[in-house]
Please model this.
Amino acid sequence: MNAPRKVTRRIQLGPVAIGNGAPVSVQTMAKCDGRDTATLLNQIAASAEMGCDIFRVAVPDLATAEALAEVVKKSPLPLVADIHFDHRLALASLKSGVAGLRINPGNIGGRDAIRAVVAEAKPCHAPIRIGVNGGSLEKDLLEKHGGATAEALVESALRHVALLEAEDFFDIKISVKASDITRTLAAYRLLAERTDYPLHLGLTEAGTFLAGTMRSTFALGTLLAEGIGDTIRISLTDTPEREVRVGVELLRMLGLRSPGASVTSCPTCGRTQVDVRRIAEEIEARLEKFYRENPNAPRPHIAVMGCRVNGPGEARDADIALIGGSGRFALCVKGENVVAFPESEAAARVVDEVRRVQWK
Ligand code: SF4
Model:
């Protein structure tokens, strides 16, 4: 179904390879003050559990750049420092040990500043993402192209690239984000024609969970299916974990990431006696971690049903079925009623069953 992946250069962001056939990686971004290291580490850990590969943190001041030193030591994911305008923040972030930068070299105060950043980034093999947004394009390009068109976005990105190349720096990835889908698609397609640097896909200001998921899935899914894109971030007005969840599911849908748990659940109705949604989500989250640690483990089909009226019939095709009663679940394996237990134990019991049984 997908077009062959476009051949791009390979860069390395800490342990994560990007481009030239490497698996498409999923990124997200901190939704807290970067100086609040406890909250930040919680967000990173929760994102890692969901299958995140790279975690980005906004660095608006020196205190945040310095606070990242402790976070880098404890983070299970490589960190990218997101910096605007002030190259000293990039230098301090690199000193703290971040694996990469997002910074636009054309906006950081001239050639000396670019040289200083490159001189620090090169020895630590920290790649730089150039991220062009429709809302912050150079004035001359807006005039030349009559607005923030796809051509203007791409020309701006390639200008920034040229500044790094002039300093003999090539560990680059690029994003060109517009808030509407048509321009985003056009800009990435054009960029993919004009450069072989790996591309970071995203749709800026994508929106709240439902709207943002739909827009991002359509835009990023279209590009990925065309073979364009080496790393993705789903931007949502929501938690980092939910951004990751959507990104991972999108890659799975396109066959670009190994499948996750196979969980179906009933839509619930007036007969529902248990919290089907919470249990189904908890099973998915627990199995996400289990399959990451045991990638070759079998993936039995699991059904979570809200009541005994239709539950057994609807769950007949499942390998493992949870059938709700009054605050309790019955566990059926291959259609056989095995055991009943309180709702609070349901998710853990299912995961135990996945571990225990030799599924065929
Ligand atoms: Fe309703 Fe029961 Fe069907 Fe769920 S399984 S939708 S609770 S009838």
In short: The radius of gyration is 23 Å.
